[in-house]
Amino acid sequence: MTTLIARRLAQLVPTVLLLSIIIFSLQHLLPGDPALVLAGENPDEATLAAIRAQYHLDQPLIVQYLYWLKGVATGDLGESMRHNRPVLDLILLKLPVTLQLAVMGICIALVVGISAGVISALRHNSTIDYATNIASLAGISVPNFWLGIMLILFFSVHLGWLPASGFVSPSEDLKMNLATTIMPAFVLGTGIAGVIMRHTRGAMLQALSSDYVRTARAKGLNERTVVLKHAMRNALTPIITLGALEFGALLSGAVLTEQIFTIPGFGKLIVDAVFTRDYPVVQGVVLVTSLFYIILNLLADIGYILVNPRLRS
Question: Exposed site from 15, 109, 216, 290, fewest CB < 10 Å?
Answer without folding.
Answer: 15
